[in-house]
Amino acid sequence: QQQQQRQRSSAKEASPRLSCPACFTLLCVDCQQHERYATQFRAMFVLECRVDRAPEQALTYADPDNGEEESYQPVYCAHCGAHVAVLDRDDVYHFFDVFPS
Predict the structure, then answer these.
(1) Residue 38 φ then ψ, to 5°
(2) Percent of the chain with pLDDT over 90
(3) Which of 18, 23, 38, 80 is surrounded by the most beta carbons within 10 Å?
(4) Using CA atoms, how far apart are residues 27 and 10, in angstroms rounded to an integer?
(5) Distance separating the N- and C-terminal Cα atoms of the chain
(6) Which residues, 6 or more positions from 67, have their beta carbon under 8 angstroms from its beta carbon?
C-alpha cells in the first residue's frame, strides 16, 4: 500500500506534457500548473512555439490585485498557428487551453 501511495504522489507532482489543442504538437515537457486556474500552466522552456514580438501585437492586462498594467507577447504553435500562450517580461510562458498529458 505504501508503494501505491508513493506512486500516486509522484504522479501528482510529475510535470504534464503540454500539446497544442488544434494539432497535438508537443509544446512543453517541463511546466508548472497554475494554483488557481487548472487549465493554465507556466514554463520557461518550450518546443515548437513562435513568439510574436511586434510591439503592436503586445497584449496588455491590468492586474486586478494592484492595478498595474502588464504587457505580454502572444505565443503561437509553430506548426498550425494556434494561439497557445503569452510570454511575460521575465521570459516566462503562460499556457492556456492546451492539452496536458
Answers:
(1) -65, -25
(2) 63
(3) 18
(4) 22
(5) 25
(6) none
Query: pLDDT by residue (tens digit) across 22-61?
Result: 999 999 999 999 888 888 999 999 999 999 999 889 999 8
Q: Calculate the alpha carbon distances from 84 to 1, 65, 72, 74, 88 in Å.
A: 40, 25, 13, 8, 14
Decide: 72 and 88 in contact? Cβ < 8 Å: yes
The pLDDT assigned to 8 comes to 43
Angle CA 68–83–98, to nearest 5: 95
Task: List the grid coordinates of 32.
Answer: 508548472
Q: Tell me the one-letter amino acid at 17.
A: R
d(CA 73, CA 9): 35
Q: How far apart are CA 47 and CA 50, in angstroms?
A: 9
